[in-house]
Design a protein that fits this description.
four-stranded antiparallel beta sheet, seven-stranded mixed beta sheet, mainly beta, 0% helix
């Protein structure tokens, strides 16, 4: 059983930065996606960014490209989301999720993910 714990959320002014962390326990597979999602109009979980372990690639939604960076820590079970130049529209609960054995074409679709964390609140004030 995989468990995910997010941390690092908080209140920041527009233009500021936050680094979110996702610590995964019980993750034994070498083929998985570990991703960040947040609620958005029309969907309960909009894709933000992903790390694919199979080819060590990173993937981003357009909203975060150039501002957000996803990376895996030296401990393979920790993933970070560095968020810079934050905007009030980035305000949301950010969820970490894992898709075991997923394919790259499905990486952006939240329904493919097997495990979810409880989320961490990010609030960006104007």
């Amino acid at each position: 059983q995989v468990q995910l714990v997010e941390s690092g959320g908080g209140l920041v002014q527009a233009g500021g930065s936050l680094r979110l962390s996702c610590a995964a326990s019980g993750l034994t597979s070498n083929n998985y996606h570990i991703s960040w999602f947040r609620p958005a109009p029309g969907t309960e979980r909009a894709f933000v960014a992903a790390f694919s372990s199979s080819n060590r690639t990173t993937h981003y939604a357009g909203s975060g490209k150039g501002r957000f960076t996803i990376s895996r820590g030296s401990a393979r079970n920790t993933v970070y989301l560095q968020m810079n130049s934050l905007k009030p529209d980035d305000t949301a609960v950010y969820y970490c999720a894992v898709d075991i054995g997923g394919i790259l074409s499905s990486i952006r679709f939240h329904r493919n993910y097997d495990y979810w964390g409880q989320g961490t609140q990010v609030t960006v004030s104007s």
